[in-house]
Amino acid sequence: MQQQRRDAILQATAALAAEKPADQVQMNEVARAAGVALGTLYRYFPSKTHLFVGLMADRVDKMQDGIHRRKAPAGTAADRVFDVLSRATRPMLRQPHLTAAMLNSLNTADATAVAEVGHIDRQVRSMLLTICGVDDPGPQDISLMRLVQHTWHGILQSSLNGRISADETEDEIQLACRLILAPLSGASS
């Protein structure tokens, strides 16, 4: 029952934030759309930041499930990471308000106050290292993947702000993967 309520809240949030900017999405509106009491919503998600980070965590879980179901792409580690990130980016760019809300919440949330922030970072990093074939990542491998994550977020933000086109977004993600991941150790090619 708790998972059903949580899922309903996240689905309502996604639907509302797909239509309008996050600052126009009201918590009482989310509760009403999810069919839960406002107090229930706040028990699960004490703030809009918690709510959008929770939604991002849910999306990352689904992304990981999709990766496990698909055959790993061929090519270099950079090619494989680009494949995963570009597959994640396309639907995100089709929902700019929702993506902006999730990214802004993820980037502004204090990891000590919103536990899912660290979970998202670690999960994405682990997923990308696995795609690269790095079974026992060293400190440099982890740092390189963290740089890819930060760069990806920045490129997404630039695209959402209208600074670069969708084609430029893909090109820049691919270039970032190639440049940053060149020294990745232990990656299977």
List the helices and strands and how they pair.
Blueprint: H1 2-19, H2 27-34, H3 38-44, H4 48-69, H5 77-94, H6 96-108, H7 115-132, H8 139-160, H9 166-181
Helix pairs in contact: 1-2, 1-4, 1-6, 2-3, 4-6, 4-7, 5-7, 5-9, 7-8, 8-9
Proportion in helices: over 70%
CATH architecture of the largest domain: Orthogonal Bundle
Query: What is the alpha-carbon Rg in Å?
Result: 17 Å
Question: Order of helices and strands, N to C?
Answer: HHHHHHHHH
User: Per DSSP, what share of the residues sits in E-state strands of 2 or more residues?
Assistant: under 5%
Q: Could you give me the name of the CATH homologous superfamily of the largest domain?
A: Tetracycline Repressor, domain 2
Count of DSSP E strands?
0
Structural class: mainly alpha
**Number of spatially distinct domains:** 2
CATH topology of the largest domain: Tetracycline Repressor, domain 2
Report how far the terminal alpha carbons are from each other.
45 Å
- Highest CATH level, the class of the largest domain: Mainly Alpha
Overall mean pLDDT: 92
Shape: globular
- Outline the low-pLDDT stretches: none
Largest sheet: none
Number of helices: 9
